[in-house]
């Protein structure tokens, strides 16, 4: 059983997210649904996750005993959404550059602070056919629990890396429609790409 099932407030948020996700079509997502979905993700916090002790004591993270630098817990998944929590043990730990093709992403910091660096294809009609397909650096965002959920577009800004700026930073992540027939891919930045640390 996924942990969210035992958390009534979170279960209500996830159920409503899944309902709004019907209107987040890949090609032309409904603007109202986008705002509503982001608002729901923004309501996920340490209280709704019942998550207010040290990262090492969290029952959500089954990998905690192995001292992995990056922890992950599934929260809830159905045929419209895929949600989970990522946790970083130490400042500077990172999820390398990757994408979520054809998926809308929503990211909400629960504790600590993180930096997201984003990139887009220079040619929006391009696909990952060649290892040197050029992408454009779209900037960095620093996020804390005070910030509204960030929306990651299925096309624009679809490549990103996430870096912890504090020990024990973690964030909630929702993908629409989830992986289904898609998968995220990881990339090695070209040496000419100089994203600041
Ligand atoms: Fe991501």
Description:
This is Cysteine dioxygenase. GO terms for molecular function: metal ion binding; oxidoreductase activity, acting on single donors with incorporation of molecular oxygen, incorporation of two atoms of oxygen. Keywords: Iron, Metal-binding, Oxidoreductase. InterPro entries: PCO/ADO (IPR012864), RmlC-like_jellyroll (IPR014710), RmlC_Cupin_sf (IPR011051). This protein is an alpha+beta fold. The chain has a single domain (3-186), classed as Jelly Rolls, CATH 2.60.120.10. It is built from two helices and ten strands. It has helices spanning 8-21, 31-42, and strands spanning 70-77, 82-88, 94-99, 104-111, 114-121, 135-143, 150-152, 159-164, 169-176, 185-186. The strands form two sheets. The chain has a five-stranded antiparallel beta sheet, covered by helices on one side. The protein has a five-stranded antiparallel beta sheet with strand order 6-5-8-3-10, with no helix packed on it. Helix 1 (8-21) runs antiparallel to helix 2. The longest helix is centred in the N-terminal third of the chain and has 14 residues, at 8-21. The N and C termini lie far apart (38 Å). Residues 1-5 have low confidence and may be disordered. Fe (ii) ion binds at residues 98, 100, 105, 160.
């Amino acid at each position: 059983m996924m942990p969210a099932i035992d958390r009534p407030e979170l279960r209500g948020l996830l159920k409503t997210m899944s309902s709004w996700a019907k209107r987040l079509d890949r090609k032309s997502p409904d603007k109202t649904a986008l705002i509503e979905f982001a608002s729901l993700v923004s309501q996920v916090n340490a209280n709704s996750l019942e998550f207010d002790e040290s990262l090492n004591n969290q029952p959500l993270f089954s990998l905690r005993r192995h001292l992995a630098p990056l922890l992950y817990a599934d929260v809830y998944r159905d045929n419209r959404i895929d949600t989970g929590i990522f946790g970083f043990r130490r400042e500077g730990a990172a999820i390398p550059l990757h994408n979520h093709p054809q998926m809308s992403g929503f990211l909400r910091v629960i504790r600590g602070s993180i930096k997201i660096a984003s990139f887009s294809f220079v040619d929006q009609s391009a696909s990952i056919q060649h290892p040197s397909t050029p992408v454009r650096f779209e900037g960095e965002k620093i996020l804390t629990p005070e910030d509204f959920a960030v929306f990651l577009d299925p096309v624009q800004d679809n490549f990103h890396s996430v870096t912890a700026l504090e020990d024990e930073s973690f964030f909630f992540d929702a993908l629409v429609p989830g992986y289904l027939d898609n998968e995220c891919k990881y990339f090695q930045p070209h040496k000419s790409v100089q994203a600041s640390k």
